[in-house]
């Protein structure tokens, strides 16, 4: 086996870092007080300040011009369709160097649910592709992914939002919760029940619709503030007699759930790459601090309990990185989604990030919990990522189901 990072990928990472240094970081510097002071970053209702949205748009559009924004999108949507291995290595590299830069992630490279060339868009009718894709590809317009509801999270088959056909239109009613970017998105990929009998048997009956968020009947009620923040990106949506033309069905009627899974799996591997990169950043900080901080007359790096924490984090990162690379290789070589492995990678990498940040904070003592180093920010993020894209428990359920149905391969 050859674990060398391909030259092409190394070139992409090098170019991407140059782009971030030349285009994104100067913008951040100019707008530091807006971006790094929560009271300026969010408005009273928890949404991004309009100027923050303006900056995010500038970065998206510059990234699209430079070719980074669309590099993982499907070719049929006008993307470069670079594979999961490249995606993983690129996400790792960005998060080692720029783990919490406000305009870097997920702006330069979009999250596949929210922005850019989501794999779900491959199911759009040709006419709609012509109408909408240019704006999405250029970064001018953004999306959101509307599946979760107040009474349906892990158990997505419990969604109640329903769509009824009237002539050439669908009339949709219901509500959605935890929808990232909904407050700012131009379009929503909205999931609704179209055949309750099929849904009750968990065999289908859910359809995905492409919705312009400015359409009457679609409204964002509020933004949910998340851990330690004055605002957030996840929103609560009301859908009240929303009328959507039949041509806006994505893929086939009643088969929306398989479309959702397609997008979710791509996101899970990308999220793992971010955790692996960010954990390396935290470990480096811990090593550097252990060299300079002295207690009992010697640097703390000489205390064996500190050494053990560093070593445990290294073992965690090495295991996570190699399992993620192996999973990406499996996807690329088999061309099918290894569900058990994707679940193992998502659960392990997100949990690993929490352990590494926890140890890095402990090694820093009191400074570790100050909000000046970025460690507490990473710790909060690590706590959050164990919930979206499938909770740790749901991934364990998927893994166990595969094992118990006879898949004991590794
Ligand atoms: C920051 C953030 C962003 C999000 N963005 C989006 C988005 O853009 N679009 C979208 O559609 N959704 C989004 N979500 C929703 C996310 O997918 C759900 O929160 C997630 O699926 C869990 O659902 P829930 O919160 O309703 O928890 P529940 O499903 O109610 O779970 C509660 C607890 O029970 C456990 N549990 C549930 N079932 C089982 C079981 N069978 N066995 C063992 N334990 C179980 C869970 O693991 C959890 O610990 C986002 C969530 C967050 C936090």
Automatic annotation (TrEMBL):
Residues 144-241 form the Acyl-CoA oxidase/dehydrogenase middle domain. Its cofactor is FAD. GO terms for cellular component: cytoplasm. Residues 254-404 form the Acyl-CoA dehydrogenase/oxidase C-terminal domain. It comes from the Bacteria. The keyword Flavoprotein applies. GO terms for biological process: fatty acid beta-oxidation using acyl-CoA dehydrogenase. Keywords: FAD, Flavoprotein, Oxidoreductase. Pfam families: Acyl-CoA_dh_1, Acyl-CoA_dh_M. GO terms for molecular function: acyl-CoA dehydrogenase activity; flavin adenine dinucleotide binding. The keyword Protein biosynthesis does not apply. Belongs to the acyl-CoA dehydrogenase family. This is Medium-chain specific acyl-CoA dehydrogenase, mitochondrial. It comes from Neobacillus rhizophilus. The lineage of its organism: Bacteria, Bacillati, Bacillota, Bacilli, Bacillales.
């Amino acid at each position: 086996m050859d674990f060398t990072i391909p030259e092409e990928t190394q070139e992409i990472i090098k170019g991407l870092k140059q782009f971030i240094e030349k285009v994104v970081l100067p913008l951040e510097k100019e707008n530091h007080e807006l971006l790094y002071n929560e009271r300026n970053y969010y408005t009273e209702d928890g949404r991004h300040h309009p100027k923050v949205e303006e900056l995010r748009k500038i970065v998206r559009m510059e990234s699209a011009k430079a070719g980074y924004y669309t590099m993982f999108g499907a070719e049929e949507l006008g993307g470069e369709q670079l594979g999961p291995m490249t995606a993983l290595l690129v996400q790792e590299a960005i998060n080692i160097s720029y783990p919490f830069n406000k305009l870097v992630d997920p702006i330069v490279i979009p999250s596949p649910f929210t922005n850019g060339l989501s794999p779900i868009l491959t199911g759009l009718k040709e006419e709609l592709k012509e109408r909408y894709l240019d704006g999405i590809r250029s970064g001018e317009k953004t999306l959101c992914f509307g599946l979760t509801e107040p009474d349906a999270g892990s158990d997505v088959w419990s969604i109640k939002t329903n769509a009824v056909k009237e002539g050439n239109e669908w009339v949709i009613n219901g509500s959605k919760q935890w929808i990232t970017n909904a407050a700012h998105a131009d379009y929503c990929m909205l999931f609704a029940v179209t055949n309750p009998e099929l849904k009750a048997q968990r065999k289908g009956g859910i359809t995905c619709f492409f919705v312009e968020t400015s359409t009457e009947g679609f409204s964002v009620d509020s933004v949910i503030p998340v851990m330690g923040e004055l605002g957030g990106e996840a929103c609560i949506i009301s859908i009240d007699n929303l009328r959507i033309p039949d041509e806006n069905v994505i893929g086939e009627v009643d088969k929306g759930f398989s479309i959702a899974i397609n997008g979710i799996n791509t996101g899970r591997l990308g999220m793992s790459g971010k955790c692996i990169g960010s954990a390396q950043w935290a470990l480096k900080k811990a090593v550097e601090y252990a060299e300079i901080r002295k207690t009992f007359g010697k640097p703390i790096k000489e205390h064996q309990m500190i050494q053990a924490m560093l070593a445990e984090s290294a073992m965690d990162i090495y295991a996570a990185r190699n399992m993620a690379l192996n999973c990406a290789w499996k996807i690329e070589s088999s061309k099918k989604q290894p569900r058990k492995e994707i679940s193992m990678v998502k659960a392990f990498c997100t949990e690993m990030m929490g352990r590494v940040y926890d140890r890095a904070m402990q090694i820093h003592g009191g400074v570790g919990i100050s909000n000046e180093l970025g460690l507490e920010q990473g710790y909060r993020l690590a706590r959050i990522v164990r919930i979206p894209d499938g909770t740790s428990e749901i991934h364990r359920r998927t893994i166990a189901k595969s094992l118990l149905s006879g898949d004991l391969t590794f």
